[in-house]
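Thread title: Can someone regenerate the structure for this chain?

I was given the following input by a collaborator and told the matching structure tokens would be attached. They weren't. Posting the sequence so someone can regenerate them.
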Amino acid sequence: MRRFWKEVTLEPTTFGQAVRLDGRPVKTPTGNVLALPTQKMADAVVAEWEAVEKTLNPVNMPMTGFANAAIDRIATDRAGFAAAIAAYGETDLFCYRATAGEALAERQTQIWDPWLRWAQERYGVSFVIVEGIMHQPQPAATLETLRAVVAARGTFELAAMAKLAHLSGSLVATLAVIERAGSAEDIWNAACLDELWQEELWGADHWAQKNRNDRKGEFMAAVRFLDLLSPGT
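Best answer:
Regenerated them for you:
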């Protein structure tokens, strides 16, 4: 889409702050009105549309993209999306370790155990620590509790959580972000522990670093989207 608009404005609606281009409503890909639940998020989306110079590029409009996903995809199937996110708890990255006694296993214990302890204390759950990559089931009570935790989140929150879980491979990491249990930078680095370990051993690879930096950009965009949902300035 080429830029045709001169002015981007907001209009209060029953669904939130709706974005207008020269007075006309912006529609999501499936034809819904693009309306945002908080003023901060609305302002951020407006800024993305104002920044378009000649041609609209979705890559440069991540907040709009998350909002579109929330409105078009998640709002129509909240339960399904919540279940898909909660499923990451069945094979959570933080539970799968190298062989005991290896230096990597010690690093995983040092970095990942505090996040698991946080989740245990926060939600009253327990985790099975797995040596190797063969799947082992987590306690049924843990999975049931975490499914309920995820299902209680709002539509726009789930849009960000889906991205966080996909990029980190960890429901615990995702919940730690949304609960503000630590810095997003620390949580991201914890999710990348194995990659960073390999770099320490064998040196950095340009393309591997670029790929991780690209994924980090997406992760931090999801974090920002969550921040924009909170009230206040």
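The chain has a mean pLDDT of 95.
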